[in-house]
């Protein structure tokens, strides 16, 4: 067929008004003044809390509102208040502050050339920390790359995280993975993939296995709002609904997916929590910058899962306060005014205010804690750097490149391994000097 | 290179050359459309589509939801309507969700509908390693697609070729996978990761016509003429091989395949029959890689001219590592050793 025979994309000669193609556009671009008046923020305490045994179809409105516990004065109000002890609240605050301090430090390390890549969770600390504290320690997490808070809340050593970030001698993943793509099986933390949303059906599979075996542990998965567009998200929802899998789906709606806003994942038309409704799954939309709301929602969903009520999808409405990763410059595509104008505030500041309101915390203690955490992270970093930083020397035995492709190494890999060692001996490059 | 003396040219890196090709195709044909993750307002994570949305509007250049199967499926539907979509898959490592739409649909639409429907799309995707991108920003999956009948696979190695090949791909009526070697977006990489990086400003193929031209699909380029052996390569490896050959002072004939399917078999045959030796170099993993196909073809067609066994230099059969990237990468040492081996009895 030659080009002239092809159908041409011309409008047919019909006497009808022409169609138009809608392409979403965010409200603010670089240079624009920001007002988030379009975002509806219902008062804290307004959402009802259904019985955990209630069928999903009984509370569709919870997929469209925002479950909020902390009010503007820092009080915990309403049916969703988890009524946590001051100690638990302080632990939550500390974990969130530690996560932020860790992110700051590792971002800086990347900028100093100590590693190739880093991703922060700034502004989203409550999502991972509060969820981890609400889950049992042996529940299985299937995170995306922005849930390092799960590891921090579960007490995973910072040095281990840093070793992985530096791909150094201490790196338990042997330098095989991109920085921050942790794996920590003994902390109930599944190996992170760089391929978006693949973890969603995997979490369902783990949960189905747990149910089939009469276990008591449940699974939880996280992905960004942008990632809900992937087919894997929808496959996961279908499986979870069909088998009433004991799984919690967390959609972290931080408004941005690299440079594209949530409208490109469908947010102009509905909420992400409402995705649950079509699948017959329980859906909750939660103020993701309210650690108590995240905690309460997670606990509620976990109880449903543990009592065979099946899956829950929780949308955490939050804001990605910084760039997507160290490779990104958000001033290129969004207004610099957005982070400060975000109507739901900062999750750390809000929890801190709550503790102060309760008379269980004060500014001086907070400032002292921040200093202590910064010092702690610095000390851990020093420890980790004793194991080396990326690119400075050979941190893994060369032949380890071939470990773990299979359980047993087939002949062709053994041959390639020998070839590589011969090559390195011939090279005279610094890699060869151990 | 076929350059008309009167054509205005300018210095471009590979990103700029790709951007220019898209711009020209969009200006010439209102049915050409660009879409993909972050390609719209932002202009792509590698900036290859920068400025196009401002120039051609949001219905011709737009961001998409993050669903590669959706992107390719939608591009097939647009092609069925009569458009000529140029979808971008942000990294070749993320093309797998789209495999079914590419393999079962785009590649077979012409055949199964006896030509009623075609899929004239060009899928652009950065591929290859050398940037410390770990296993999800480094892969070279071209061999998966050359195995599928009905898809063309194109890989440029210079800004000049990138522009001319991309225009040819967009105008082609079959689905084309256009893999862009991201390591050489900014300059020709010689494989020495620990030496200062070059940019395209000094390379002859960094001089690119500002206007319209095509580099035909299915035609290889002889990068260096020689008598001692034939080196078959593409993408980043063209530059690594060129550096190694210069270093060792071997009179190699280096062929940049440029298109893997359909392959320029005549150029290969002619060269191997002349030199009697053939070395094949690619970054992708070895087993069932495109090098295996090349090796079989050379053996089938040039057996009686061969004076040494065919040499294959490739990435190892492991996932792409992070910290041991340069041990993995088929660099000057691996290629140099293979070169010595194949030239041993010469
Ligand atoms: C399958 C796949 N496609 C594309 C990418 C490239 N990519 C990495 S992160 C990202 C944006 C994800 O946004 P979102 O889901 O909102 O998560 P966030 O980064 O905001 O936490 C994209 C497109 C990828 N990693 N995997
Ligand atoms: Mg997001």
Spatial order of the strands forming the largest sheet of chain B? 9-11-10-13-14
**N-to-C series of helices and strands of chain A:** HHEHHHEHEEEHEHEHHHH
Q: Tell me, rounded to a whole number, the average pLDDT of chain B.
A: 97
How does the overall form of chain A come out from the CA principal axes? globular
The total count of strands of chain A amounts to 7
Number of strands of chain B: 14
Order of strands, main sheet of chain A, comes to 1-2-3-7-6
Q: What is the first-to-last residue Cα distance of chain A?
A: 61 Å
The set of bound ligands, ions and cofactors reads:
thiamine diphosphate, magnesium ion
Total DSSP helices of chain A: 12
Mean of residue pLDDT of chain A? 95
Percentage of residues in DSSP E strands of chain A: 5-15%
Structure description:
The complex is a heterodimer of chains A (434) and B (346). Chain A is an alpha/beta fold. In chain A, 35% of the residues lie in helices and 7% in strands. Chain A has a five-stranded parallel β-sheet, with helices on both faces. Chain A is globular, with a radius of gyration of 24 Å. The model of chain A has no long low-confidence stretch (mean pLDDT 95). Chain B is an alpha/beta fold and 346 residues long. Chain B is built from twelve helices and 14 strands. Chain B has helices spanning 14-28, 52-56, 68-81, 99-106, 109-112, 142-146, 159-171, 236-248, 265-275, 290-302, 325-328, 332-342, and strands at residues 9-11, 32-36, 61-63, 84-88, 122-127, 152-154, 176-181, 207-209, 221-224, 229-233, 252-256, 259-261, 278-285, 311-315. A five-stranded mixed β-sheet of chain B has the order 9-11-10-13-14, sandwiched between helices. A four-stranded mixed β-sheet of chain B has the order 5-7-6-12. Chain B has a three-stranded parallel β-sheet with strand order 3-2-4, sandwiched between helices. In chain B, helix 3 runs parallel beside helix 4 (99-106). The radius of gyration of chain B is 19 Å and the shape is globular. The two termini of chain B are 31 Å apart. At the A-B interface, helix 12 of A face helix 3, helix 11 and helix 12 of B. Chain A: It catalyses: N(6)-[(R)-lipoyl]-L-lysyl-[protein] + 3-methyl-2-oxobutanoate + H(+) = N(6)-[(R)-S(8)-2-methylpropanoyldihydrolipoyl]-L-lysyl-[protein] + CO2.
